[in-house]
Specification:
Layout (H helix, E strand, L loop, with lengths): L1 H21 L5 H16 L4 H12 L5 H10 L1 H6 L1 H40 L1
């Protein structure tokens, strides 16, 4: 468990260092998560200790929402002042996300259909 936790924290540290060094507008822990994903894909999945450690952390995932909830409450006045802009941003980003997801799905399905036709032609 200690080794798995060290790997998780090391990926987060490397991600933070990369973010600070490059100035990317992505949080360091997110970069670390992508690095961890790359390592797991390269290794063929998580080890048993990594999976057990991740399951242990996931049990307490709800506690991570406490700071966000406190931050939300402390910023209620700011949120009220910008409620219209926030609502518009949520609606626009949701519609944009749905459109991009739909277009990507159509593109992927089109590629899958042409692949299956190519297989049928070859047979």
């Amino acid at each position: 468990m200690v080794r798995a936790m060290a790997i998780l924290l090391l990926c987060q540290l490397v991600g933070t260092i990369l973010q600070q060094a490059t100035g990317l507008p992505v949080p360091g822990p997110v970069i670390g998560l992508v690095l961890l994903l790359g390592v797991l894909v390269w290794r063929g999945g998580p080890s048993e200790s990594m999976a057990a450690t991740a399951q242990g952390i996931l049990k307490y995932l709800g506690l991570l929402f406490v700071p966000a909830g406190v931050g939300f409450i402390t910023e209620l006045q700011e949120l009220r002042a910008n409620a219209i802009a926030i609502a518009i941003a949520i609606v626009v980003s949701t519609l944009l996300c749905l459109a991009v997801t739909g277009l990507l799905m159509q593109w992927l399905l089109r590629g899958e259909r042409s692949e299956s036709r190519g297989d049928a032609d070859a047979a």
